[in-house]
Amino acid sequence: MLEQDSSDFKIHPLTQFLQSFTGLRHLKLKLSSFTLEPHLATAIAHHRSSLQSLIYHERELQLIDDEGRFQELRDKEMTFMVQLPHIVNLSQFSALALCASPSKLRSILEPLRKEASLHTLHLRWTGSEKLHRNIREELMSRLTSPPFRSPGLQLRPNEVKLGGNESHQMARTIVVSKSSPEEDEYLAFVQWAFGPQGMPFLETLALGDFSFGDRYRNQQLLLRRKTKEAQEIQYQEIQLPCGLLDRDFFVGILDDVSFHEKLMVEDLNFLRACPDGGLMDSPYE
User: Fold this and answer.
1) Is the pTM higher than 0.85?
2) Contact between 218 and 208 (Cβ < 8 Å)
3) Looking at residue 164, what DSSP letter applies?
């Protein structure tokens, strides 16, 4: 991970290095408090004709209290994301990983969706920032739920009725937690990306932190496009009452050999690259 003194306005050595040669195919960057985004964007664009995959994960010090006394490194959205189509050639790109708002990323990718050859897309976040949540369960509970509403069905805002003929059996009522705007945004992106108006070549969509094995299992979700080949493989995750049977995607397993064959990048650890923290998990964190 590279760090930069915010008072240094000279061209960073990283930028100089990237501009000193041509032909780069795969680039993985983890940056901390890096302030020279315009220069770095130009340096990455220097390899536009050859670049096939990019990991870009930036973190910066942010205030974490109302009084403004405490700061902590937090994920930062790629500042020059709107320039992405000019920095990389999406028609020859196979894999992209970055911190991004799903709706903003969609607005950038949607006009280029037919020409974009992206097979793997990873929306990253640092797992340690979200340890208080089980994002995997939150998203899975929504993805595997059936259409909730039917005409004339009267329910309280937090209830959903399931079941058949009420004259023969009592309908079951389950309580569904209210969704957050963040969940809605990610789910809308998933449905668009794999849908008929989405990314036609996209095979894998990863959400979250896949570093250090299962350390952040509750902060990660791997989705794959449903194909004939994929349907023949039985995954434990989709053996659910409502499942994903009517979806264009299913829940994948990172260690599945066929997943790596589809990844189409030289490094099979693409999703696990550029981790935050050390190999040993501190009991004091």
Assistant:
1) no
2) no
3) S
pLDDT digits (tens, 9 = 90+) for 212-238: 888 899 999 999 888 766 555 544 444
- Specify the pairing of strand 220-225 against strand 204-208: antiparallel
Number of structural domains found in the chain: 1
Residue 171 lies in a domain: no
- Per residue in 35-86, pLDDT tens? 656 688 999 999 999 999 999 998 887 767 677 676 678 888 888 899 999 9
| Cα–Cα dist 211/132, whole Å | 17
Asked if the structure places residue 198 within a domain, the reply is: yes
Query: What CA–CA distances, in Å, run from 86 to 46, 91, 109, 129, 220?
Result: 10, 12, 12, 31, 29
177 backbone dihedrals φ, ψ, rounded to 5° = -65, 145
Instruction: Tell me the one-letter amino acid at 36.
Output: L
Please, are residues 19 and 46 in contact by the beta-carbon 8 Å criterion? yes
Instruction: Annotate 115-140 with three-state secondary structure.
Output: CCCCCEEEECCCHHHHCCCCHHHHHH
79-119: pLDDT as tens digits = 889 999 999 999 999 999 999 999 999 999 999 999 999 99
Q: Which residues contact 198 (CB under 8 A, 6 or more apart)?
A: 113, 192
Residue 163 in domain: no
Instruction: Pick the closest to residue 163 from 177, 173, 155 (CA basis).
Output: 173
In a domain, 165, yes or no: no
Kindly state the DSSP code that residue 187 receives in the 8-state scheme.
Answer: H
What tokens does 48 get?
A: 């536009």
- Identify the domain containing residue 229 by its residue range: 2-145+181-272
- Residues 268 and 69: their CA atoms lie apart, in Å, by 42
